[in-house]
Amino acid sequence: MGHLSLPASKRSPRQWKLLDLVIAVLLGLVLLFFLLVFTRLGDSLAASGRQSLLLASRDHARLVAAVESGKLYPSHIESCPDDYADHMPCEDPRRNSQLSREMNFYRERHCPPPEGTPLCLVPPPEGYKIPVQWSACLDKIWHSNMPHNKIADRKGHQGWMKAEGPYFIFPGGGTMFPDGAGHYIEKLKQYIPITGGVLRTSLDMGCGVASFGGSLLGEGILTMSFAPRDSHKSQIQFALERGIPAFVAMLGTRRLPFPAFSFDFVHCSRCLIPFTAYNATYFIEVDRLLRPGGYLVISGPPVQWPKQDKEWADLQAVARALCYDLIAVDGNTVIWKKPGGDSCLPNQNEFGLELCDESDDPSSAWYFKLKKCVARTSSVKGDYAVGMIPKWPERLTKVPARARLVKNGVDLFEADTRRWARRVAYYKNSLNLKLGSPAIRNVMDMNAFFGGFAAALISDPVWVMNVVPARKPSTLGVIYDRGLTGVYHDWCEPFSTYPRTYDFIHVAGIELLTKDPSTSKSRCHLVDLMVEMDRILRPEGKVVIRDSPEVIDRISRIADAVRWSATIHEQEPGSHAREKILVATKSFWKLPTSSS
């Protein structure tokens, strides 16, 4: 049947009004474009924008100088607006949404310059409470601490989480294991040595609220869970509020911030990572991270998934090209074991996979573009394959092979272990820090070296995010060989986590984190660094800073400005370094309510 065309005179008045409106809008946009491009108005607006940026930069520099001199008036740095309660400077969707979508570039870290951001203290949300203590927080958290219902509404039927009275509760389920992660792990035990200490370090990609990683804690496996900041909002924040190791990251265009061959076990449960895209670039990155002899588990698409036959065939082809041993295909779950020695490449494969040059450092991973070549296991010397390294917990104290690659590494490792055992005992017994109590669960060491501080806390109910500064010697592989976890980071940038995620932050040598190791020149300000520490620290959380007396004096002035109550102490007996120790507590302040 043909379309009936009415003459213009018989069109309805509504059609004319709509057409007039569209034409008017288009003419207005054309006029605006003409004014901006061909008149001084555009130049004036551009100049105004540049002037605003310049003023922001000057204000930032003025505030930093006032804080460091102790002449800030009023005496505290101002609070940010209430819509900053979940602010993540490097994962800000308002800014990053303008970037390229290719390979999810826009969902990776993109940090603004310090002078382009307001110097303010991030407030807690209205109704915030001191978090539920460990281990009760594994199963329930305060709803008011992160009042985001989207995951509970969309995923509650899959057992992720649900609202119940003043709490969010976590039944332990997930999309691929709605009956609970415990049942799922029992199934995996048929194929993987989850018990017995053979496996210790695990990576969970696209982790949701991290129930899988939380359940593995009971098996003695320490899982680093990651996911991007996404439409579900705050899944990593929920994980950290539960006391589960996690941070925000996106597998996009860059390597993840971990050294090569760190994880005994890598897991994806409906993480929807296109492992075979871009000539299998993402599978190659997983291979870089997986320890020789380690296990890779993928549950969900495309494993035996409807209408994804080609994707499933391609995934198997990549694994075969890398000589992974197929352990099992159980429903929609596949389990592979990585070969224990060097890759079987080169070989004939449809993806063109080749080994990286011998000069490539597979542990370079800070803002390092993904490579389309496979990391050589021989590029890292020593025995670090699953089955070759000691079982947990013996591996914690035995000198790892990667420590021997550092000059005088064995002596440094043993001295570092003794030093931190002595220091942590002093923290507990003389400084009365409540390490070991249920009130402290999430701990960060901002300058971890060999992980000695974390190792000294191993009998306490804590987990430690060991941060190795990106410009310092790469010792993070040693930390993973010990069975601990951590990331690379540059402390002149904000950290990839939500506000209020750590109970305790420790740093030895804070001033060095702001300097260029090769020139000793400052690259950023201590004020910006401590404002960032305040952002990620929970109200009533603790900070311990060790440095020279002169630096500690400067830190004390800044601590006042960020509303910390601080005391300064002498170092522990037997220490020969010229140091003092600042112990601070973040105050629990709130924005004034609209009625006050």
UniProtKB/TrEMBL annotation:
Membrane topology: Single-pass membrane protein; Single-pass type II membrane protein
Gene Ontology annotations of biological process type: methylation
Transmembrane segments annotated in the record for this chain: 21-41
GO cellular component, one term: endomembrane system
Principal localisation: membrane
Enzyme Commission number(s): 2.1.1.-
Annotated SUPFAM superfamilies: S-adenosyl-L-methionine-dependent methyltransferases
Family the entry assigns: Belongs to the methyltransferase superfamily.
The name this protein goes by in its record: Methyltransferase
